[in-house]
Design a protein that fits this description.
- By secondary structure, this protein is an alpha/beta fold.
- 26% of the residues lie in helices and 18% in strands.
- The protein has 8 helices and 13 strands.
- The strands form 3 sheets. The chain has a 9-stranded mixed β-sheet with strand order 5-4-8-9-3-10-11-12-13, sandwiched between helices. A two-stranded antiparallel ribbon has the order 1-2.
- The longest helix is centred in the middle third of the chain and has 18 residues.
- The radius of gyration is 22 Å and the shape is globular.
């Protein structure tokens, strides 16, 4: 990779250690004045300052989770990783976008709202989309010193991309290429809408082929904008993973590809063995979510690169407690074994009711 990437952070740091993301030799770089940022060639380095801690700990709240997540990404960049997987709790409210009906929203690491009495409406598609978009925005802001032309936020369809364009328009802190993998479909509450449905007529093989090619438009299949150095794929599903596989093969390891809430741990079947090999090669830089509730009720899993995987439970009284640590992600069998062997104090047995919902754990 020829371009050096640097995320410059710290409020008034005189100097800091900058690391070329995909090259081998770290070097010292003095932080230039703010006025010089636009003309400086930047390389991925410090993201949010030094988040190094002696012991891996669960985040206390959303702010802590975001900070530790960025620290994990920073460490991955220093180690020249260019394929990353980031997973936050389902429907997490990062508090980035303000509610129209009120002055703002209280942020929380909500995951599943079923049974949560504090939730008015439960988990909706709108809340899911908002959560994913907020996470994408946080990552775009993280890489902003690269210059917006080198950052691409890739949504699944034009409807989601249009929402981001409207909300981020004119905000210099979130400049980037906002694109969609599916550029012809418009999603609504009823599904995908691409205008009025045309009546199909009997056509020959050649006409059918031409019609399929026409669906892609003049530009052909989805490609990343030119000069993209960091590609953020927002909540891609199985269909989008097919396009991402092709993109990864096209751009090579010189382009940093980050999957946001792809939920790879839940993907059971890939399009091919090559696809499985590719996505299994994505490093889980940050994971925070519910463990198998059948095997370990009230438990969550967490990993922050380069640390180990944690399995923790939240008692009714007190902070979450780690009950198991291992190098690899916990399988259902691992969860069941750890849950069965954990020790619960007499106080916990008499005073608590296990939280079955991640939404209650960080309030």
């Amino acid at each position: 990779m020829t371009r050096k990437l640097l995320i410059i952070t710290g409020m008034a740091a005189a100097s800091m250690l900058a690391v070329t993301a995909f090259q081998q030799t770290p070097y010292k770089l003095k932080t230039p004045p703010a006025a010089q940022y636009s003309s400086s060639r930047l390389s991925i380095g410090k993201v949010f300052g030094d988040n190094t801690t002696k012991e891996q700990q669960l985040p206390k709240d959303v702010k802590d989770a975001i900070s530790k997540c960025r620290g994990a990404v920073q460490k991955a960049l220093e180690n020249r990783l260019s394929r990353m997987d980031v997973e936050m709790p389902v429907g997490a409210n990062f508090g980035v976008e303000k509610k129209k009906s009120s002055g703002g929203r209280k942020s929380s690491l909500a995951s599943l709202t079923d049974g949560d009495s504090s939730s008015e409406e439960g988990l909706t598609m709108e809340k899911l989309d908002t959560s994913n978009r907020e996470l994408a925005r946080l990552f775009v802001e993280m890489f902003q010193p690269l210059g917006g032309q080198h950052i691409s936020a890739v949504f699944n369809d034009e409807s989601l991309a249009d929402e981001a364009r409207a909300l981020w328009k004119g905000d210099l802190s979130v400049e980037c290429n906002i694109v969609a993998i599916d550029r012809k479909g418009k999603r609504s509450r009823g599904g995908l809408m691409g205008g009025k449905k045309k009546k199909k007529k009997a056509v020959g093989f050649a006409s059918k082929m031409a019609e399929e090619l026409e669906d892609y438009g003049a530009s052909g299949p989805f490609v990343l904008p030119k000069d993209t150095e960091v590609a953020l794929f927002v909540a891609p599903g199985p269909k989008e993973l097919i396009a991402i596989e092709r993109i990864c093969n096209e751009v090579g390891m010189g382009t940093c590809v980050i999957l946001l809430n792809a939920r790879l741990s839940r993907v059971e079947k890939y399009a091919s063995n090559d696809a499985r090999k590719l996505f299994e090669g994505f490093e889980p830089i940050w994971f925070l979510g519910a463990a198998s509730q059948e095997d370990a009720p009230g438990c969550l899993m967490h990993r922050a690169y380069p640390g180990k995987w944690l399995l923790a439970r939240k008692p009714k009284v007190g902070a979450p407690k780690t009950i198991a640590i291992q190098d690899d992600i916990f399988t259902g069998e691992d969860c069941a074994e750890a849950y069965a062997s954990m020790e619960v104090s007499d106080l916990e047995k008499t005073s608590e009711k296990l939280a079955m919902n991640v939404a209650e754990w960080f309030k």
